[in-house]
Amino acid sequence: GGGDDTSGEGSSEGSDSGSEASSDIEAQTWRFVTEEVKGQVQYEYAAEFAKRMKEKSDGKITIEPYEYGGLGSETDQVELLQNGGVEMAVMSPGFTGNMVKEGQIFALHFLFPDSVEKTQEILNTSEALNKDLVERYEEYSITPLSFWTEGATQWTSSSPLEKPSDFENFKMRTQTSPLIIKSYEAYGAEPTPMSWSELYTALDRGTVEGQENPIFFIGDASFNEVQDHMTISNHNNYVAMTTVNTEWYNGLPDNVKTLVDETVEEMQDWVYDEQKEQNEKWLEKIKNDEEHPTEVVELTEEQRAAFKELALPVRDFYKKEVSTVDGAILEKLQKEIEDVTAE
Amino acid sequence: MKILRAIDKFVLKLEEFILSYSILLIAVMVVGNVLSRAITGSSWTFSQEISRFAIVIATFMGISYAARKGRHISMSAFFDMAPYKVRKALAIFIPAFTALVMFVLAYYSSLYVLQVHERGTVTSSLQLPAIYITIFIPIGLFMGGLQYLRNMWVNIKEKDIYLGTDLKDYNQNENLEDQSFV
Amino acid sequence: MVALLMSIMVVLLLLNFPMMIPLIVGPLVVLWFFFPNLDPMLMMQQLQTGIESYVLLAVPLFILAADIMTTGKTSNRLLDFVGAFVGHLRGGYAITTAATCTLFGAISGSTQATVVAVGKPMRERLLKAGYKDSSAIALIVNSSDIALLIPPSIGMIMYALVSNTSVGDLFMAGILPGIIVFLAFSIFSILYAKKEDIPLADKVPWKERFRMTGKALLPLGFPVIVVGGIYAGIFSATEAAGISVLYAFILEVIIYRSIKLTQIPKVALSTGLVTSAVFVLVAAGQAFTWVISFARIPQTITEAVLGPDPSQTFVLIMVTVFFFVGCMFVDPIVVILVLTPIFYPVAVNAGIDPIHLGVIITFQVALGSATPPFGVDIFTASAVFEKSYLDVIRATPPYIIMLISIAILLIFVPDISLAYRYILP
Ligand code: NA
Ligand code: NA
């Protein structure tokens, strides 16, 4: 059950945070939108979150998780949260980049270490993110309560991608973010912005030759069926944020707020395990798929370094052209990352 | 009256110009992007954004033009079967209520425009303020509302039934040739 | 809430309001009454979101290409070409009509364009050949519906938009069902011509046939470019639509010189008018979908209609019924925009292939649009041919029987829609 592994901190009643604390909670329903569908990490996160909150509040707090779909684009969902139409959302900073410019920091390649575990540790502890970046978001009525990784992003392709020259004239599907486009131009690729709903067919027909995503998403969307190679490049992490509407959150009674904070914290370990399990499961599946064989290659440290060298100047572009605080958050984050990786 | 008629004519020409050239702009953007990719190997990153801009303008700025020409899609089966008096009453009530809805939508969408403006959202490729696109929604809806008021007025003033100020009901007027169907 | 929403929409619809009004007012009232905390301003944002999809840009482009060709000479060249080969057979003119509608359907995205471009010149030829007017019109209206199945298809683009499926795959999947409908109509035409004893036309000499083929060669390049280009991965559906425009332009303006360059803005104006009328509905449809998703209405409706854990066949039959009935009353685009978000999730959960579902839906939409009492194609034909409603529908029953039979076939044999996966490498 949800209460079993809680530390119980913040609850004056002791380890069993159940009935007494929740006795003065009003019955209420919150809406929790995600950018993914049932079975995928974000949605499962919201469903688990809902389950735990229900148990902790003795059924007083009902959270309805929403799959991606009818509520418009990812950007629309962001605005829905900002306007208080929904209380909670999982969002990718990539979809707020047109507003909170600093959020594009997560598009930079080879910023986080190649270990997903270390990356998660940084996301949990970084002051640059959990304080400075959160403040940027709060200007827009969005409060990120936590940052977590859905796994490292990998490349799939029709021809091997092991060194930067493999990207020469390579048609790479990207999202429309200028920083992502810059990142692939830095390798000499031809970034082709495209909606993911057209991506399967485009890969199949060769309109684009490659794409990037966490492994579970590659498998769930069957991109491996139409690609011959997968490069474990760990060039980036797909980072998501658990967010709440700022005014709504600040107006919550203390006991309810405590329940939320506590659950958010527990969920960090849960989602780390969830994405790990999903990514590992799909990696095995993709490797063992004999009908659609995919050659999986993991980059060596030297190979990664060759890409990283080309990716570094994009950080200057971020500092000069994207950041509104001259890259102060990036510089602080880089120091924090150095500290963690030096351990 | 002369001035009003001149304004009307100007608005008509302007609407025709916007509709026609936004469609051509989309064609140029999409074709240009394909050709550029085929010839030089690189896409026009601005192509999608400009096309979207054009389609929003064409859609919303086209509302009043389509209303004038009586070309908004509707389910006219019962209307067509109804006797003259009922049709006349509906021909006044429908545009009046439609105009009201358009004005309500124009109001809400201008609130949306204000919000976009306050947040300072920019488009992802050209980094232009998103409000440049959004602003055409309330303008189009408002113009549409005005045109529906005119559709109402022409039905009050004239004996014949009009589906739009430029289109009489074809139940009484067989001149269908100038309607192009697509 | 569902009852309130539905009654508002049905009343406004039947009163002959522009269709965007029921689509907007229904959800707006739902917001006011049931979700006072939700700012209607957010619904306005959906008006924009609804039409900003890149996939959707294929619609105005295919319409523009069709408009250029309807203004020019393309449809007559196709008619002459097909007629030269099959005109002399039993039912030859009828087969010519069906074949040309299929071919023109392969060029244009819409049924109405096909009715105008092929129907007008072909009706005269059919009458001269001894066909009854009502038979001629029924044939034209129903054959034009094949246009919705043969790529490019605006109906399929709309389905792809709402369901996030691939336009390219849907296009491939529609071809075989389209050809089956064409074959059924051809067989019927032969039988009909025998029964009515329609005189045979003279056989066209081979020399003339070669000439006609030569003249039709360029228009025949269209389907090759659209389908081939998408399949070969040279471009996306939207880009294929752009290339269609370029091709139509080169054909009619530069090669045939049937349209002057200065006429192009006027052609684009007609495209813009239709685009606006359609896209307003797409915008309103998105606002509608947004509100019902928020209120979880699709779940309520599908649970009520389908119960828990419905079988694939049952889901497909209900989809068939709802779309068919919907299209008898409402514009096909609106039906797709409104009903797809309701049924799509259940259907996919039941294990139905999204592409197969898309073909079924497109087929029902085509069928419903040509079916009395209120199919939109009937009104189009009534306006284009200046014939009364009854004259238009008099000879439709055999076609409707054929189409319903094929619909049942498609439901029970998904491989017909999905055959492209085996056939194409
Ligand atoms: Na593969
Ligand atoms: Na077609």
Brief sketch in words of this structure:
Chain C: It is found in: Cell inner membrane. The complex is a heterotrimer of chains A (343), B (182) and C (425). Chain A is of the alpha/beta class and 343 residues long.
Verbal overview:
The complex is a heterotrimer of chains A (343), B (182) and C (425). By secondary structure, chain A is of the alpha/beta class. Chain A is 44% helix and 19% strand. Chain A is built from twelve helices and nine strands. In chain A, helix 6 (178-186) links the parallel strand 5 and strand 6. In chain A, helix 2 (41-56) runs antiparallel to helix 10, helix 4 packs across helix 12 and helix 6 packs across helix 11. Chain B is mainly α and 182 residues long. Chain B has one domain (2-179). A two-stranded antiparallel sheet of chain B has the order 1-2. Chain C contains 23 helices and no strands. Chain C has one domain (2-423). The model of chain C has no long low-confidence stretch (mean pLDDT 87). Chains B and C meet through helix 1, helix 2, helix 3 and helix 4 of B and helix 2, helix 3, helix 4, helix 7 and helix 13 of C. One sodium ion binds next to loops of chain A. Chain C: This is TRAP transporter large permease.
Helix content of chain B: 55-70%
Percent helix of chain A: 40-55%
Distance between the termini of chain A: 35 Å
Question: Which ranges of chain B are low-confidence, i.e. pLDDT below 50, for 5 or more consecutive residues?
Answer: 173-182
Bound molecules: sodium ion
Low-confidence stretches of chain A: 1-19
Features:
heterotrimer; A: alpha/beta; 7-stranded mixed sheet; two-stranded parallel ribbon; 19% strand; C: 425 residues; mainly alpha; 23 helices; 78% helix; globular; binds sodium ion; transmembrane helix (chain C); TRAP_DctM (chain C)
